[in-house]
Amino acid sequence: MQAVKVIFVLSLTLAVAFGRKPLGAPKPLEGDDLAKAKDLLTNTLTKLAAGDGPKYEVVNVSSATSQLVAGSLYKFEVELSNGSDNKECTVKIWDRPWLLEKGESTNIKIQCKDEAEIDTTW
Ligand SMILES: *[C@@H]1O[C@H](CO)[C@@H](O)[C@H](O)[C@H]1NC(C)=O
Ligand SMILES: *[C@@H]1O[C@H](CO)[C@@H](O)[C@H](O)[C@H]1NC(C)=O
Protein backbone atom coordinates (compact mmCIF):
# COMPACT_ATOMS: atom_id res chain seq x y z
CA MET A 1 0.00 0.00 0.00
CA GLN A 2 2.81 2.35 0.98
CA ALA A 3 4.58 1.63 -2.33
CA VAL A 4 1.46 2.50 -4.29
CA LYS A 5 1.22 5.79 -2.47
CA VAL A 6 4.85 6.62 -3.18
CA ILE A 7 4.44 5.84 -6.86
CA PHE A 8 1.31 7.95 -6.99
CA VAL A 9 3.01 10.94 -5.40
CA LEU A 10 6.05 10.44 -7.60
CA SER A 11 4.05 10.36 -10.82
CA LEU A 12 2.10 13.40 -9.70
CA THR A 13 5.37 15.25 -9.10
CA LEU A 14 6.63 14.24 -12.53
CA ALA A 15 3.37 15.32 -14.15
CA VAL A 16 3.68 18.73 -12.55
CA ALA A 17 7.34 19.03 -13.50
CA PHE A 18 6.90 17.95 -17.10
CA GLY A 19 3.49 19.53 -17.58
CA ARG A 20 5.19 22.90 -17.22
CA LYS A 21 7.80 22.18 -19.80
CA PRO A 22 5.96 23.71 -22.80
CA LEU A 23 6.00 27.02 -20.93
CA GLY A 24 9.73 26.68 -20.50
CA ALA A 25 12.72 27.40 -22.60
CA PRO A 26 13.21 30.50 -24.74
CA LYS A 27 13.49 29.58 -28.40
CA PRO A 28 15.86 31.42 -30.75
CA LEU A 29 13.94 32.91 -33.68
CA GLU A 30 14.84 32.54 -37.32
CA GLY A 31 13.32 33.05 -40.77
CA ASP A 32 9.67 34.16 -40.78
CA ASP A 33 9.39 34.08 -37.00
CA LEU A 34 12.39 36.38 -36.69
CA ALA A 35 10.99 38.77 -39.31
CA LYS A 36 7.64 38.91 -37.45
CA ALA A 37 9.38 39.46 -34.12
CA LYS A 38 11.42 42.33 -35.60
CA ASP A 39 8.19 43.88 -36.91
CA LEU A 40 6.70 43.60 -33.45
CA LEU A 41 9.81 45.25 -31.97
CA THR A 42 9.71 48.12 -34.46
CA ASN A 43 5.96 48.67 -34.07
CA THR A 44 6.15 48.53 -30.29
CA LEU A 45 9.00 51.06 -30.17
CA THR A 46 7.02 53.32 -32.50
CA LYS A 47 4.01 53.16 -30.18
CA LEU A 48 6.23 53.83 -27.18
CA ALA A 49 7.68 56.90 -28.91
CA ALA A 50 4.19 58.12 -29.83
CA GLY A 51 3.14 57.83 -26.18
CA ASP A 52 5.26 58.80 -23.18
CA GLY A 53 8.48 57.78 -24.91
CA PRO A 54 11.39 57.46 -24.95
CA LYS A 55 12.03 57.51 -28.65
CA TYR A 56 14.24 54.65 -29.75
CA GLU A 57 15.06 53.26 -33.16
CA VAL A 58 16.47 49.81 -33.81
CA VAL A 59 19.98 49.93 -35.21
CA ASN A 60 20.75 46.24 -35.14
CA VAL A 61 19.28 43.07 -33.66
CA SER A 62 21.96 40.66 -32.51
CA SER A 63 19.61 38.05 -31.04
CA ALA A 64 15.91 37.37 -30.63
CA THR A 65 14.08 34.64 -28.71
CA SER A 66 10.48 33.89 -27.88
CA GLN A 67 9.08 31.99 -24.94
CA LEU A 68 5.59 30.76 -24.26
CA VAL A 69 4.42 32.00 -20.89
CA ALA A 70 0.88 33.29 -20.44
CA GLY A 71 1.17 34.83 -23.91
CA SER A 72 4.45 35.23 -25.77
CA LEU A 73 7.54 36.75 -24.28
CA TYR A 74 10.04 38.09 -26.81
CA LYS A 75 13.55 38.99 -25.83
CA PHE A 76 15.88 40.96 -28.08
CA GLU A 77 19.51 41.90 -27.74
CA VAL A 78 19.65 45.06 -29.81
CA GLU A 79 21.49 48.21 -30.59
CA LEU A 80 19.11 51.16 -30.20
CA SER A 81 19.50 54.78 -31.17
CA ASN A 82 17.81 57.61 -29.28
CA GLY A 83 18.57 60.02 -32.09
CA SER A 84 22.07 60.95 -30.94
CA ASP A 85 23.60 57.94 -29.19
CA ASN A 86 23.63 54.22 -29.95
CA LYS A 87 23.24 51.90 -27.00
CA GLU A 88 23.37 48.17 -26.34
CA CYS A 89 20.01 47.19 -24.87
CA THR A 90 17.90 44.23 -23.90
CA VAL A 91 14.28 44.61 -24.92
CA LYS A 92 11.55 42.33 -23.62
CA ILE A 93 8.07 42.44 -25.10
CA TRP A 94 5.30 40.49 -23.43
CA ASP A 95 2.42 40.04 -25.83
CA ARG A 96 -0.97 39.09 -24.35
CA PRO A 97 -3.54 39.90 -27.05
CA TRP A 98 -6.53 38.88 -24.91
CA LEU A 99 -5.84 41.80 -22.53
CA LEU A 100 -6.29 44.39 -25.28
CA GLU A 101 -9.55 45.72 -23.85
CA LYS A 102 -8.01 46.12 -20.40
CA GLY A 103 -5.18 48.12 -21.96
CA GLU A 104 -2.61 45.60 -20.79
CA SER A 105 -1.88 43.58 -23.92
CA THR A 106 1.64 44.88 -24.43
CA ASN A 107 4.35 45.20 -21.82
CA ILE A 108 7.75 46.47 -22.96
CA LYS A 109 10.86 46.54 -20.83
CA ILE A 110 14.00 48.23 -22.13
CA GLN A 111 17.25 47.87 -20.27
CA CYS A 112 20.11 49.80 -21.81
CA LYS A 113 23.64 49.68 -20.47
CA ASP A 114 24.14 52.01 -17.49
CA GLU A 115 20.57 53.29 -17.61
CA ALA A 116 17.43 52.77 -15.59
CA GLU A 117 15.03 50.19 -16.91
CA ILE A 118 12.02 51.43 -18.83
CA ASP A 119 8.87 49.43 -18.09
CA THR A 120 5.66 50.42 -19.85
CA THR A 121 2.35 48.65 -20.37
CA TRP A 122 -0.57 49.50 -22.64
C1 LIG B 1 24.61 43.43 -36.25
O1 LIG B 1 24.87 42.45 -35.26
C2 LIG B 1 25.48 41.30 -35.74
C3 LIG B 1 25.54 40.29 -34.60
O2 LIG B 1 25.97 40.86 -33.42
C4 LIG B 1 26.87 41.66 -36.30
O3 LIG B 1 27.48 40.52 -36.81
C5 LIG B 1 26.70 42.70 -37.39
O4 LIG B 1 27.97 43.13 -37.83
C6 LIG B 1 25.92 43.88 -36.87
N1 LIG B 1 25.65 44.80 -37.98
C7 LIG B 1 25.75 46.11 -37.85
C8 LIG B 1 25.33 46.93 -39.05
O5 LIG B 1 26.14 46.65 -36.83
C1 LIG C 1 20.58 60.05 -25.91
O1 LIG C 1 21.29 59.43 -24.86
C2 LIG C 1 22.43 60.16 -24.43
C3 LIG C 1 23.19 59.33 -23.42
O2 LIG C 1 22.35 58.73 -22.48
C4 LIG C 1 21.96 61.51 -23.87
O3 LIG C 1 23.06 62.24 -23.41
C5 LIG C 1 21.21 62.25 -24.95
O4 LIG C 1 20.70 63.45 -24.42
C6 LIG C 1 20.08 61.41 -25.52
N1 LIG C 1 19.50 62.08 -26.67
C7 LIG C 1 18.19 62.23 -26.83
C8 LIG C 1 17.76 62.88 -28.09
O5 LIG C 1 17.38 61.81 -25.99
Main traits of this protein?
6 strands; 2 helices; globular; alpha+beta; Nuclear Transport Factor 2, Chain: A; 122 residues; single chain
Model description:
- This protein has helices at residues 2-19, 31-50; strands at residues 27-28, 57-69, 71-81, 86-95, 106-112, 118-121.
- The longest helix is centred in the N-terminal third of the chain and has 20 residues, at 31-50.
- It contains two helices and six strands; from the N terminus they run αβαβββββ.
- Mean pLDDT is 87; it is low at 6-21.
- It is 31% helix and 39% strand.
- It has a single domain, classed as Nuclear Transport Factor 2, Chain: A (Roll).
- It has a six-stranded antiparallel β-sheet with strand order 1-2-3-4-5-6.
- The chain is globular, with a radius of gyration of 19 Å.
- It is of the alpha+beta class.
- The chain binds 2-acetamido-2-deoxy-beta-D-glucopyranose (NAG) (2 copies).
- One 2-acetamido-2-deoxy-beta-D-glucopyranose binds at residues 60, 62.
Give a topology summary.
Blueprint: H1 2-19, E1 27-28, H2 31-50, E2 57-69, E3 71-81, E4 86-95, E5 106-112, E6 118-121
The structure holds 2-acetamido-2-deoxy-beta-D-glucopyranose (NAG) (2 copies).
InterPro entries: Cystatin-like, Cystatin_dom, Cystatin_sf, Prot_inh_cystat_CS
Family: Belongs to the cystatin family.
Keywords: Signal
Describe what is shown at a glance:
The chain contains two helices and six strands; from the N terminus they run H-E-H-E-E-E-E-E. The chain is an alpha+beta fold and 122 residues long. A six-stranded antiparallel β-sheet has the order 1-2-3-4-5-6.
